Amino acid sequence: MAQATASVAGAPVSARAAGPSPLLALWSGPHGGVPAFDKVKVADFKPALEAAMAEKMAEINAIANNPAAPTFENTLAAMERSGQTLARVSTIYDIWSSALNDATFSAIETEMAPKLAAFNDQITQNPALFQRIQAVYQQQLKTKAKLPNEAYRLTEVRYKEFVQAGAKLAGPAKARVSAINQELAGLFTKFSQNVLADEGDDVLVLKTEQDLGGLPASLVDAAKTTAGTRKIAAAGVITNTRSSIDPFLTYSDQRELREKAWRMFTNRGDNGGPHDNNAVITQILQLRAERAKLLGYPTHAHLRLDNTMAKTPEAAMQLMEQVWKPAVAREHEEVADMLALAKKEGAPANFTFEPWDYRYYAEKVRKARYDLDQNEVKQYLQLDKMREGMFWMAGELFNFSFVPVTDVPVYHPDVRVWQVNDKTTGQQVGLWYFDPYARPGKTSGAWMNAYRNQQRIDGKNVTTIVSNNSNFVKGKPGEPVLISWTDATTLFHEFGHALHGLSSNVTYPTLSGTNVANDYAEFPSQLLENWLATPEVLNRFALHYQTGQPIPQALVDRIKKASSFNEGFGTTEAVSSALIDMKLHLAGSQKIDPDKFERETLAGLGMPHELVMRHRTPQFTHVFSGDGYSAGYYSYLWSVVLAADAFSAFTEAGGPYDKAVAARLRKYVFTVGNTVDPAAGYRAFRGRDPKIDALMKQRGFPLPAAQATPGKASAGKVQSKAAPQATGKRK
């Protein structure tokens, strides 16, 4: 996921003289300036945020109170130039929140979250400022031909942003929306801190060597290393993050320990006590429903989807329902196969298949049916080599080269940095930071950040700074980190977000890079997953960690043959999360008991008892640590339809590295940011609206009789919006 904060190399004089805090200083040094991570002190965050907010408010007030008639240049463009100091401070603040969050920082975050929300409301609810924006918007509706397309798009995006924030409301309603936003900001922070606490505090201790039974050597090494790092006298320790739990559930032959690991992970935020999130969720849902009503929408879901490709919750639900039934049907087939294998291996006649058995027996069936052992595949997937493979792929498709640099400070010793250049001109297009490893205080999962958005306002080209962040577990010092096929796919996914940001070629930061509707933002990243399996990547970079030999073609063939294996499980766990998210936010103002709602809704959907949602409600940070993906988790499915259809454009042409198709992809998707309507951009690339056929074929599902087509939502013209700036693109 990406935090799209914009900053430029220059800043008002007041920022330069604001005080000694390095957080307030211009980003200096090479590459157009870089964050001074080596000078950051947690104690500086609060005063720096307060000083930067004061500076931006003065700039906004100057725009709002300008006696000159409102124009695009003195209103919308002026807003783009404002708040540069705050953008820089917020970028570093958000990095500490997601990557270095400890008790000291958490206390500051708890205090500042409502203040930041109130500050944003002061801007979006400023009547004088909105009157100027509205005046320019109305002028452009009449004289659109006189304005550049990008200027019109920026005005449209800003106008709708302010309307959805309550700019048109009367005084009392406007004040209530602001109060709700402040309360929500505090609850979002509390929710994410509760999940982080359970992830950091809870571990599975493997007491004896027997407890390591079935685990591959790489996972044994990681568990032993973690035990040493945490100073726990044991054979090994499994941390409470997906990167540790999923492989443990896949390989451990200790069923009781698998159950403990599964319960520990799926009960994050749902254990009672001070870190329980159920009451927090209830409050968030109530406040969101109230805010939506005040803003004139039936539900929060209708509010959130108004400016997306899907446009309406009904369109999103239609797509999910088309995929849900065939996914569940396939899941039942998968369970039958696994149950048969379990009994063949000696399971008792009354053996009941449980969720902590799924990954374990799925791997056994995969090996039996396709002669494919994921642990065998893992021997060829070295993290560093996969990174090099991504770089090579980016060179072929995007004409980028990656050069390691050591002349910039980093916020943790694990972080490495590369300069990204255009291969033809040698011109720098940005920097790429990579933070690959799990650690206490770091949010689990994988995501992309934008530290600085590409822009060329006032004719000055400002290059972007992006990062990818993962939670791989370190093994023995000096030995390569081996990752699973799923983890490698996620690596390519997040790199797709980074390439989206690096490819950006727009004028205004608000429209730059990944600042697009969520159900379109995930499209480039979902698409890039397809290149992992190409022979060009595998033959060069999938090298055995001991022999250096490339992955055998026979093994690649088995991977391809098994590509749709277990898609019932994968699709069901993801779509169930999306359906719960949407149904929670379509429930309106009714008071929700999250555990009960989740349980009863899943039962009504026919959720198989042998698996759990990919993100259970009490730990669903996509949805409850901010508004960004709320009523929007469907966007992953929506985007993967686009991605499957788009990859077909390559396979129908000269193959995955077809130059002409890649050029169209860059021109109409990756470079344009939010300067064009995403549906129009996709049509320009593909020559038509997307179809669901390619996705259903990829997953081995039958085609539905009726199709919901992303790009032709059922409620009229498709539109898009700028993504909220505090939202990350997260898998």
UniProtKB/TrEMBL annotation:
<dbReference type="Pfam" id="PF01432">
    <property type="entry name" value="Peptidase_M3"/>
</dbReference>
<dbReference type="InterPro" id="IPR024077">
    <property type="entry name" value="Neurolysin/TOP_dom2"/>
</dbReference>
<dbReference type="InterPro" id="IPR045090">
    <property type="entry name" value="Pept_M3A_M3B"/>
</dbReference>
<comment type="similarity">
    <text>Belongs to the peptidase M3 family.</text>
</comment>
<keyword id="KW-0378">Hydrolase</keyword>
<keyword id="KW-0479">Metal-binding</keyword>
<dbReference type="InterPro" id="IPR024079">
    <property type="entry name" value="MetalloPept_cat_dom_sf"/>
</dbReference>
<feature type="domain" description="Peptidase M3A/M3B catalytic">
    <location>
        <begin position="248"/>
        <end position="700"/>
    </location>
</feature>
<dbReference type="InterPro" id="IPR001567">
    <property type="entry name" value="Pept_M3A_M3B_dom"/>
</dbReference>
<keyword id="KW-0645">Protease</keyword>
<dbReference type="InterPro" id="IPR034005">
    <property type="entry name" value="M3A_DCP"/>
</dbReference>
<protein>
    <submittedName>
        <fullName>M3 family metallopeptidase</fullName>
    </submittedName>
</protein>
<keyword id="KW-0862">Zinc</keyword>
<feature type="region of interest" description="Disordered">
    <location>
        <begin position="704"/>
        <end position="731"/>
    </location>
</feature>
<keyword id="KW-0482">Metalloprotease</keyword>
